[in-house]
Amino acid sequence: MSSLTTLTGQLVEEHNPWPRLLVSTEIWQEAIRGLVEDRWTLAGLWGDDGGVHMALAAAADLRVLSLPCPDGHFPSVGLLHPPAIRLERAITDLFGLVPLGAADTRPWLDHGHWDLRTPFGPRQDGSEPEAYTFLAAEGEGIHQIPVGPVHAGIIEPGHFRLHANGETIVRLEARLGYTHKGTEALMRGSDLDRAAKLAGRVSGDSAVAYAIAFARAVEAALNTEAPQRAHWLRALMAELERLANHLGDVGAICNDASFSLMHAHCAALRERVLRAAHTCFGHRLMRDCIVPGGAAHDLNVAGMQTIHALIREIRAKFPGLVSLYDNTASLQNRTVAAGILKPGLALKFGAGGYVGRASGRDFDARRDLKYPPYDRLSFDVPVFQEGDVNARVWVRIREIEQGLSLISQILDGLPDSPIRADIPSRTGEGMALVEGFRGDILVWLRLGEDGKVERCHLRDPSWFQWPLLEAAIEGNIVADFPLCNKSFNCSYSGCDL
């Protein structure tokens, strides 16, 4: 990737740890050209009062470009770079800023139930919103299959519109926004304690990763550092969260291929992880255990013994499950060559986590950005090229194995220090990129002079993964949609904000 230093503008001094530049329209358009030419990767795009921000990544280097929008519009990024399309739709819904030349002007979060069309004006005459129009697919024998937004069980709400020819899917389009919570609006004016709680609830299965990202963004904004023991405790919780989710996913993917035995065994191991987390940190999902300045809970000797016992149990049982997965022909028949995501698309969309790594994109924020304590830990990042359901399963399997090693290293190297530092109340801007179990999570924020949040944007990796599911499912049979969908396991809530 090319260096980001060619993008110039007025430096915002209080922004840390990567530069933020106020740029002209010409530089904004140069950034778009760089994205089109794969010189760098889109890491985020979000609105603000009177302007838009775009985060770009080139390897371990990041940069935020800020474009003022005095006339309420900005050059569309999504017109030439599709990963930005849904982010621009959200910007219009939340801030009323219009991307000029946008490829898709349909609402994203606004389902017509708000009193305001945008934050700047009421719906005209109280009229009903226009019906949402899904993208069309034409041809002889094409029929539509609507799925959701209400699903069986406790799955989050999302609508999938499938166009099929017989049993073959020719187009899939997802519509989300059903769980819009107003998180970013609730952040405004919040003190750091309340804002940290909100961040940890963006996507419930990633409570730890979001909390770390928010805390690191605050610490960057205020030029403060958490104690060393807090960094290691954060990593321990993050790896427990990754372990629980990967175990759950491996079993659930197999269950969608009608192999419930794997589901049962993996669910039992996942339950062991959640119980250990509750024993050690007081909450099964370790919610509110990480705060700006450090950690809210320490690990005692009994907790260490609990986790050591957990690691021994998983190491004893998991290899047999891997062998069962790999040697069950009927299961392999469903997962191999199903839902193939081409490496070029994974690269173009900056796909993180197992979605990207199963399709050849070798990026892991823990390794590439070297935030503590991962700069002192040894681990491999598994990368596969096939891009199918099977490859996404194998990334998870290898990350489970690496996670067990990381947890052991953390327990052996846990330093002795306080777990929390005082946080000053002052203005500042900060950004953090943290590796969650799905991929990289971005948090950007601005603090006011009273230390409260003026603006906070939280970007889930699923923003760039949902469109890739739509591409990967084409040509597969309808019966494989649940299987492919689960192999991606994108967050609904994380994209509903």
Detailed description of the structure:
The protein has 497 residues and is an alpha+beta fold. It has 16 helices and 18 strands. The strands form 6 sheets. The protein has a 5-stranded mixed sheet. A 4-stranded mixed sheet has the order 2-16-17-18. Strands 11-12-13 form a 3-stranded antiparallel sheet. Helix 4 packs antiparallel against helix 5 (207-221), helix 6 runs antiparallel to helix 13 (389-413) and helix 7 (260-281) runs antiparallel to helix 8 (301-326). The chain is globular, with a radius of gyration of 22 Å.
Secondary structure elements and pairings:
Layout: E1 10-11, E2 15-16, E3 20-22, H1 25-36, E4 41-48, E5 51-58, E6 61-68, E7 73-75, H2 85-95, E8 98-100, E9 116-118, E10 121-122, E11 142-147, E12 159-165, E13 168-175, H3 183-187, H4 192-199, H5 207-221, H6 228-256, H7 260-281, E14 290-291, E15 294-295, H8 301-326, H9 329-335, H10 343-348, H11 353-357, H12 365-368, H13 389-413, E16 428-435, E17 440-447, E18 453-459, H14 466-473, H15 481-488, H16 493-496
Parallel strand pairs: 2-16, 3-6, 7-8
Antiparallel strand pairs: 1-3, 4-5, 5-6, 9-10, 11-12, 12-13, 14-15, 16-17, 17-18
Overall 3D geometry? globular
Global mean pLDDT: 94
Please give the number of β-strands.
Answer: 18
What proportion of the residues is helical, as a percent range?
25-40%
Relative strand content: 15-25%
Count the helices. How many?
16
Classification by helices and strands: alpha+beta
Radius of gyration: 22 Å
Amino-to-carboxy terminus distance: 31 Å
Question: Numbering strands along the chain, what is their spatial order in the largest sheet?
Answer: 1-3-6-5-4
Q: Give the low-confidence spans.
A: none
Mind summarizing the main beta sheet?
Answer: 5 strands, mixed
